[in-house]
Amino acid sequence: PFTYRCPGGESFADLVRRLHYVALRVERSKSPVLVLSHLMPLRTLCAYFQGMKVPVSPDLVELPEHSILELRPGSHGWTSQLIQVTPPQTDLHSRFPHVR
Fold this sequence. Notes:
The chain is α+β, with helices and mostly antiparallel strands. The chain contains three helices and two strands.
C-alpha cells in the first residue's frame, strides 16, 4: 500500500517525498505557519510532527472536519491543540433558488 499508485495518481510514498521539503520549511520557520490542504497531506504532516512512523501513521492521526490543529514547538518535541470550528449554516435553496 505504501508504494501503490492508482493510474494517474500518486502513491503514499510519493506524497511523503513531496511533503519532506514542506516539513523541513515548517521546522525552520521562526514565525507561525498556516498549512491548508486536503486531509491526507495534513495527516501525514501531523504524524511527522508528532514523531509517528510515517508509512503507517496517516490512519492513526484523527483530524475531524471543520477543525484547526495548532502545533507548537517545545523543548521535548511538538505539542498540539485541536480547535473545533463550527461552519456557518447556509440555506442553499435561498441562495440558489433555480437549482432543485
